[in-house]
Amino acid sequence: MSLKERESGYKLIVKPHDDGTFSLDLVQNPPGDSRPTKKRRSTYRSSISGWRLDSALGMIRKTLKESGYKPTDLKRSRKTPFNLDETSGVKLNILFLALRDVKKRTKSENIIFGISDMSREEALYWHSKIEHDSSRTKQSGVKALRILLGGE
After folding, report:
1. Sheet order of strands, 22-28 included
2. Is residue 108 a contact partner of residue 59, using CB atoms and an 8 Å limit?
3. Which one of 57, 61, 88, 102 has the largest count of C-beta atoms within 10 Å of its C-beta?
4. What are phi and psi for residue 20, nearest 5 degrees?
5. What is the number of domains present in the chain?
6. pLDDT tens readout for residues 99-112
């Protein structure tokens, strides 16, 4: 197992579709040793597809480049997951969750730029508000982030 694989906290998985498009799933590796066992499995966090994926491709490719991949590595035919560090995974997770129900492209662009510019600490704060609270406050965290970055 390479150093890159051991240190990765997240995996970005390309899911091809029959219509020639693809979506991306983000999963979090189990804590500690990243090899799954019966009790320690990767946890699905979020996904993105369609026009939201098209809007976010710039940030996704930038994140992959910062993680040591070529931007051209992101393609429909890719079989191996991308290994991401904690900060990269957290930013993509809050991005995917924040864009999930957005209907306006201009609002999605504001959200993408806002998350892209977040510091590590700010991204971890929003991640904890969204992922580690009850389902009711999770939705409140996502809504608050959308309002802060995208406006009403």
Report:
1. 43-48, 22-28, 10-16, 82-84
2. no
3. 88
4. 95, -5
5. 1
6. 998 999 989 999 99
Please list the residues that pair with 83 across neighbouring strands.
11
Residue 78 belongs to what domain range?
A: 3-150
Give the pLDDT confidence of 27-50 residue by residue, as tens digits: 998 876 555 566 667 888 999 999
Which segments of the chain does DSSP mark as H helices, in order? 3-7, 50-66, 86-99, 105-116, 120-131, 135-150
The region, left, alpha or beta by phi > 0 then psi within -120 to 50, assigned to residue 132 is alpha
| Closest residue by Cα to residue 27 from 8, 4, 43 | 43
In the numeric block, which tokens belong to residue 145? 């982030």
What single letter denotes the amino acid at residue 62?
A: K
